[in-house]
């Protein structure tokens, strides 16, 4: 199982709305994530907008590709793109750059 961690930055003026949106993630989005191989997926948000994402998957590239092929993901990403800083024209799911794991206590 591959462990993946990534960072994004939520705009300071949208933090509360971002929290509210994630308190009610669409059921079809949750189902698509699970079906696409995203397991144990968590998002952590610091008060300054730093967002840390963590997930486990057999193959991150395949999991991303499977999600990219879903209609629900396209709709979700379109709605979420305005929440983030520095996407450089990418969708939020395309802007995720996994961090290199340097230690894991098994």
From TrEMBL:
TM stretches of this protein: none
UniProt-listed Pfam families: rhaM
Source superkingdom: Bacteria
Gene3D superfamilies listed in its UniProt record: 3.30.70.100
Name of the protein in question: L-rhamnose mutarotase
Organism whose genome encodes this protein: Streptomyces johnsoniae
């Amino acid at each position: 199982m591959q462990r993946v961690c990534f960072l994004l930055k939520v705009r300071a003026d949208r933090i509360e709305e971002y929290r509210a949106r994630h308190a009610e993630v669409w059921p079809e989005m949750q189902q698509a994530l699970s079906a696409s191989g995203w397991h144990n997926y968590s998002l952590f948000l610091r008060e300054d907008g730093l967002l840390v994402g963590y997930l486990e998957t057999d193959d991150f590239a395949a999991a991303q590709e499977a999600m990219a092929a879903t209609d629900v993901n396209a709709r979700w990403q379109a709605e979420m793109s305005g929440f983030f800083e520095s996407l450089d024209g990418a969708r939020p799911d395309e802007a995720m750059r996994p961090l290199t794991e340097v230690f894991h206590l098994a």
